[in-house]
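Q: Joint fold for the lines below.
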Amino acid sequence: METPLTKNMRADKSPVALSDYMSTGGYAAVTKTIGKSSPAEVLQVVKDSNLRGRGGAGFPAGMKWSFVPMNEDDPGHKYLVANADEMEPGTFKDRLIMEQDPHQLIEGMILAAYTIQADVGYIFIRAEYHYAIRELKKAISACHDKGFLGKNILDSGYNLDIHVHVSAGRYICGEETALLNSLEGKRAHPRAKPPFPQVSGLWGRPTIVNNVESLACVSHIVNNGADWFKSLGIGEDSGTKLFGISGRVKKPGTWELPMGTPIRELVEVHAGGMQDGYKLRGFLPGGASTDFLTEAHLDLPMDYDVIMKAGSRMGTGQMIILDDKTCPVAMVENVVSFFARESCGFCTPCREGLPWVEKVLHAIEVGEGVPEDLQILERQGRFIGAVGNTHCALAPGAIEPLTSALKYFREDFEQHIRDKKCSYQ
Amino acid sequence: MPTIIVDGISYQVDANDNLLEALLGLGLDLPYFCWHPSMGSIGSCRQCAVIQYQDEDDQQGRLVMSCMTPVTEGAILSIDAEPAAEFRSAVIENLMINHPHDCPVCEEGGECHLQDMTVMAGHSMRHYKGLKTTHRNQYLGPLLNHEMNRCIACYRCVRYYQDYAGGTDLAVFGSRGRVYFGRHEDGVLQSEFAGNLVEVCPTGVFTDKPLSERYTRKWDLQSAPAVCTGCSMGCNISVAERYGELRRIHNRYNSEVNGYFLCDRGRFGGGFVNHEDRIRRCGVRNASGVYDPVSKQQMLEKVSALISAAGSKVVAIGSPRASLESNHLLGKLVGRENFYSGLSGREQSIINAIYAIQQTGGARIPTLREVEAADAVLILGEDVTNTSARLALSLRQTVRNRSKEMANQIQIPLWHDAAVRKLAQDEKSPLVLVTASEDRLEDVSCLTHRAGPDDTARIGYAIANIIDNRYSRPADLTDNEQTLAASIASILKNAEKPLIISGSGSLNLAVVEAAANVAWALKGENKDSGLIYCVPECNSLGVTMLHDGNSNNLDDLLSGSDDIDVAIVLENDLYRRAGSTAINSWLGKVKNLVVIDQLDNPTASVATLVLPAASFAETEGTLVNYEGRAQRSFAAFLPQGDIQGSWQWLLDIADQVGTQKFGSIRQFDQVTEDIAAQNAALSGVTKAAPDASYRSGAGQKIARMTHRASGRTAMVADVTMYEPQQPVDNTSALAFTMEGANLIKPGEVPSSLTPYIWSPGWNSNQAIIKFQAETGGALTDSDPGVRLIATASPVADLHTRHTTIPAITRHQGGSLQLVPGYHLFGSEELSAYSKAIAELTPRGYFAVHPDVAGQLGVADHDGLETQINGANVQLEVVVSESVARQCVVYSYGIDATGELVHEKRGTFKKAESWESSRPSNLIMSDR
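A: Joint structure:
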């Protein structure tokens, strides 16, 4: 089984330096592409590979890039932004790439920027990732020395600078348009789309924002071709993916596995199964902002559309497991409390609705709930949950664990209200 | 026009609208908060949700925010569909979680958009049981209260304040359920347009502070459609009274003039009406210089006797802040040859020139709405923000036209406000400033040049010459002037609708003439050029047009040697317009000075007879604004004591005298008709508003109070149980109190007679939406006022008109150019009496460039003095890099600066005895 994303990574987790990265074929894609292939050719390969965004939404990367106007008469800047604001609770995959093999990201960014003819790149990274920040800065500096970045890259006439921008730390900055506002020094409110960033993004200029893992895939696609990338997946989707599990399993962690790997294999083989004495009750398949799935869904493959049909989202592919000795109400309260705190405060359902839900959940959890509270939760779930009701996807994502918990674990909510206490304590 | 189907009914709507403005424009009710017709959409409140169906077979539909959804041909929509109604109700319920239940003590109550929308959306049952979020309020200065707990976080205030009005000291802080809208710390809001927050805020976060001192609910206010007297823009206002006091001024929508917004002088400058210095009784000066009160009849007899005395020489001084009617009657009473316009010679010659230029048809005179469509602007020598503030607010929209162009190129709809702003970032249409000192528009200008008035005129002349070399060229242009003029000329030539703005602000005729040359030269290049002149007062142009630009002026009178038996001064403080030495020496020749005015000003203080005049809030009058638009202003209430309109005093005097000159004129409307008949230029004034015979559809007069006025019978209940008879209005089609037509429907009553805005379910000013032909557009019954200056085809050979170019300003033996510096708060005579305005008025100053300060050996807070026409004027020094060299900028209208307005130059020296007494409260930007 091929593991292009993690093949360079070392047991001691020390970062791969430029020379080591190059010795295993690093920057071959850049060398053979910049100034040698046309942007359109690179775009075609990425399109053909069916690379879908690894940040959570699963939007085809090639299609996203194709919306950038390629008007040679327009002298203005274009931008490529790597979204490294990995703040989804339970998610720690981009960190792995940036800390241990940062050149993968840089090389992917050079190729992506070349494809859309961007001359400036930004890595928008959360401040807590200070090892990654250090390694990325080192990597960028090494690339400048080697001529992979800067003016006239590899004598091609193509220029690209990449800057590391350390975020001030808000979950909403992971939303691509809020990220752009934040990068401009403005309040991190998401923007209404259309216009999409591809047309009017950073400082009003054409901009692509991609997740770190998506960009890390690009050099491998360019090196090995679209068909190779497609063949890596064993289900409907292409490539490998960094899947991860947290919760009461024996070996929590992140592994590079083919797209379409069954959930059961993730839990039972790679994570070593549940810890002794714990049983799996449910799991959030792709980070805290996805709907619960249960044991009944364990045999589903981790493919975007399959998980969507099952009523959840693959999200970041980083699962959080709920065991039978943890209170689902408390877990949902914890999740909602996080999102209520991270709301940007722009639109009503999120700003006002989430704190209300949080308060009701807290009341239920501490034994002060009343039967009508369930109606309030359901009503608020409908109010906040539908896509389009809110300005961005934060609130619908935030409420998904609750609405699915009401479906799968309703008895727990009712027990809290009936017995006026949490039976897990 | 696309057709859309709403709940089964087809409508035609504008393709450029979003669904919300289209639906509201159709007269449908749909609640909203964050959207504003002038500010577009951002989609934050989520209140205006509707269901949009994909096609006729789609039963489910999709919830969309109507403000964020473009109109599309054939769109099938539902406002009433259950999911949409349920969602809108849920939005209100969630907004209400933290909103206090303080409506009974909230000043917004009764005209609160949040109340209206809550009722409209149908939320009535509270389910939330938690605590409410609370905030600390801030001191925001004397104009606005701040009550953050009421905030529903619609973001309108910051979008208005920062994005629309260009303010920098109101922002949103924090995030999530704790967002806070305010300043970074307590302090006076710095924007000249902050007062609009009262109306922009959909609830009671920002309320009118002077109103709260003597608070009255909207339904208990007695209002009238009036015109602001704060400057020459002619903004339409709704002035409101209770218990014989002016309580507040609200915006009155006029799509051609002020739209939705006023400046803070206009909104808060009416306080003089209630001032303790108001003259309320007729007074006769006795031997000891004190005024004895006399009855109205006694006064009429005294005045009449003076005028009628055989061989009596009677002269009259009119006023640019009095109505056409009052000025006209005064001229009629004394005869035109004895009528003096009340403007200084210097001012009158400039305004005559402006009026002559406007009549040539050489360039358009744009309305404020048209100003916002210009694509390049040149301002020559006018501090627009401080002399004609509402124009400055429009110019802040004008510079956004570049961003609109950019948005059009990539098909971003213009109502998509955040997207247009994000796309354009700092790109702006060009605005060039050539002014003598700091200008608040600098933050949006592409080029700012500092020059004294003469040099400003030279640059103007040079620009016109570069555009069309038939226009005169300054002989000794410096290289710098040449380069500057060339770059400005090229900016203007690149535009399609260039706009040139100048005015009487720098008291310099050459500046005015140079501005015309630029506009005319551009017109010759087939540009649709516009030319705006700001004039000083609310009726400067009107009083000039009254005698077709041929009035005698104040200087003609003061310099005369004749002894005068009676001089009648109408609403005019002469000491603001001429030096005290000249006035006092002239007064020595005047046997009897009769003053008709509102406030006990320096001129009234030396009068023989004083007649108390009604203010704009207490009487009718027609005013002509900067663009030659005649507008009628109506009284909100009858004044107390002997006070009456100046025109009424003059009618009464004429009646007492028994003169034949007035013919059958006994009524206000007859005065207006007489003006139209006697002055070709003013023949349109009768059309400014319907006359007193107008009646609504049901045959009623228009009530000044709402049908909900509840307290009238209780107003004097502590004194008598009998309700006094209500006053009768014989002068206009309006009726006092709530009797008459007061459930005004759109289009039912002429807009010029609409005292306040109200529609069922719409108690706030946002009800205006029901009175517009299309959302944000003209009023259903066309906008008030009538344009008097026809846009004829241009007079030939305009390039031969203005050829007197001033020489370059050089240091002239220690003398410096005197340049008036204006202040929104303080430079205008009447508004300066308002308490809130007085608190914001800077003290008088002489501002000089550091180089000049160095030469004179002065620093900040020192004193400078000058001897002018026998007067010694001392003011505090302000040293500023932004003052043009060779200039001394003085605080126009503040402290003893009336002594200076006559002179172009002065010689200054340090005032050795000067003591800086008060702490400075000069309004400075905190940028």
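Q: Anything notable?
A: The CA atoms of residues 285 and 641 of chain B lie 19 Å apart. The longest helix of chain B spans residues 345-360.
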